[in-house]
Amino acid sequence: MSDKENYHMSSDEFKRFGYKIIDWIAEYHRDIESRPVLSRVNPGDIRAALPNTAPEQGEAFDDFIRDVDKIIMPGITHWQSPNWFAYFPANTSAPSILGELLSAGLGVQGMLWSTSPACTELETHVLDWLVDMMGLPRHFKSSNTGGGVIQDTASSATLSALLAGRERATKYQSNKKGVNGRLVAYASNQAHSSIEKAIKIAGIGSQNLRYIDVDENFSMIPEILAAQIDLDLEAGYTPCFVNANVGSTSSNAMDPLQEIGEICARRNIWFHVDAAMSGTAALCPEFRFIHKGMEYADSYCFNPHKWMFTNFDCDVFWVKSRKELIDALTLTPEYLRNKASESGQVIDYRDWHIQLGRRFRSLKLWFVIRHYGVEGLQYHIREHVRLAQQFADWVRGSNEFELVVEPPLNLICFRHKDGDGASQKIMETVNAAGDIYLTHTKLNDQFVLRMSIGQTKTEERHVRHAWDLIQQAAKTL
Ligand code: PLP
Fold first, then answer.
1. Could you tell me the pLDDT band of residue 3, with boundaries at 50, 70 and 90?
2. CATH number for 469
3. How confident is the model at residue 94 (pLDDT cuts 50, 70, 90)?
4. Computed over its alpha carbons, how large is the radius of gyration of the chain?
5. How far is the C-alpha of 462 from the C-alpha of 447, rounded, in Å?
6. Would the CB of 155 count as within 6 Å of ligand 1?
7. What CA–CA distance (Å, rounded) separates 398 from 113?
8. Where a domain ends, among 329, 359, 389?
9. If we measure between CA atoms, which residue out of 109, 131, 129 comes closest to residue 120?
């Protein structure tokens, strides 16, 4: 130890470096457009620039910032660039970043109500707000039979829902005796890979996940689902879970919730709706067509960390019956017993998801909602959809490109009329130049370009520039 009493950063140093970091972040966001969107490092480059061993003596904070610029930044792919059109967005905003910082500053672990009442109560309250803000079914509210919880990701939300469905179907016997190999689950063949992963983790087995065929819009065909369930019942299987997409990953396909929900309700099968990216659209009443039939859902999730200006991680998850979810997941060792929990008057969120410990994630969501207000959020969501629809019009009007499917919201799936090779070459050309970043999928075995519009700061000029670059790349074929 030097002349200091201990090794900690002093309060004054913390303030000084904290201001520097905030300045750094503000400048990063201000100038982000000048950076190539995709990192250009080769595998191993970042590690090669780092020392082989950890420092024996503490180092100066200014040196960390210098190394972030020198070593880390070349290895960053700029998800927050307004020229980000790849995958789905993982957008953020200034109020969200500040909420995240405050959460780290408080450093609470909210596994039980009593381990920080505000962590639980703010979360319950904000998720109740969202039910009203999005016109979701009333039973998702905590004052009703259900309630909402923040999960890290949609993958975790799906797994929690699946476990609740599994326990309902086996009368809580799978939890006790293990899974019997006769449980079956259903999703469209466009479902996200997280569904199959959950099926594997829950011990149901990927061969017991039935992929249901889709129509020309890549939406699940409910008649095929019903027929498959009947076949499985006749063969002695126990259907336990159906997943529907509101906005599939490949093409933003919408499954018919109403018809699927009726099928599940008749057979008492857990019905989960995954709206990871597109759920945010329901902030605007004119886009609530995506939720038609949601009243049948036993559980529902979407990701504010994709399209609602709230930085990763933040998935919001509601259930119709909190009792069923809690009964599937609760376990109380002696060391967690406390009076508040036993009074039955509080929510202990540890019983609502896989892990025990939990961060104070609702702070950032609360900050975002309060900063933008419903009106501000609606404005930006409408703007993204407007820009996407404008892009779709440009594709429709072009001699070289065509839409692969009609876009319901903010994802445009399109291709070059010369086919897969041409489309792929165009994507590689624009990505190599670095100004924008675009990714692809396959639909009906064809290579398809995905223009995904939802980055916080994306404006019309960015979308127009992207279209210009795509057209220029087509000319070099
Ligand atoms: N579901 C859908 C429809 C998705 O598009 C995605 C990711 O893109 C996921 C689930 C997984 O999201 P997460 O990373 O939150 O688990």
1. low
2. 3.90.1150.10
3. very high
4. 24
5. 24
6. yes
7. 57
8. 359
9. 109
pLDDT tens, residue by residue, 210-231: 999 999 999 999 999 999 999 9
Q: From ligand 1's centre to the CA of 314, what distance in Å?
A: 12
Pocket probe for ligand 1: among 84, 155, 220, 254, the residue whose CB has the most ligand atoms within 8 Å is 155
CB distance 410 to ligand 1 below 6 Å: no
Angle at alpha carbon of residue 440, lines to 438 and 445, rounded to 5° = 165
Ligand 1: does its nearest atom lie under 6 Å from the Cβ of 153? yes
| Distance separating alpha carbons of residues 337 and 267, to the nearest angstrom | 37
Give the Cα separation of 58 and 7 in Å (integer).
8
How many residues comprise the chain? Answer: 477
The 10s digit of each residue's pLDDT in 416-444 is 999 999 999 999 999 999 999 999 999 99
Same domain, 313 and 172: yes
Tell me the average pLDDT across 365-384. Answer: 98
Report the residue among 194, 305, 313 best suited for mutation to probe ligand 1: largest number of ligand atoms under 8 A from its CB: 194
pLDDT in tens, 220-276: 999 999 999 999 999 999 999 999 999 999 999 999 999 999 999 999 999 999 999
β-strand pairing of 401-403 with 411-416? antiparallel
Ligand 1 nearest-atom number relative to CA 247? 3
Task: Kindly report the pTM of this predicted structure.
Answer: 0.95
439-443 vs 411-416, strand pairing mode: unpaired
- pLDDT tens for 452-463 read 999 999 999 999
Q: Which residue in 433, 392, 434 sits closest to 414, CA to CA? A: 392
Ligand 1 close to Cβ of residue 452 (< 6 A):
no
DSSP string covering 445-466, please? TEEEEEEE---TT--HHHHHHH
CATH (domain of 282): 3.40.640.10
Three-state secondary structure readout of 242-263: EEEEECCCCCCCECCHHHHHHH
Q: Is 192 in the pocket of ligand 1 (CB under 6 A)?
A: yes
Residues 335, 250 within the same domain: yes
* Residue 333 reports pLDDT greater than 90: no
Contact (Cβ atoms closer than 8 angstroms) between residue 148 and residue 140? yes
The answer as to whether 92 is a domain residue is no
pLDDT for 167: 96
405 CA → ligand 1 middle, Å: 21
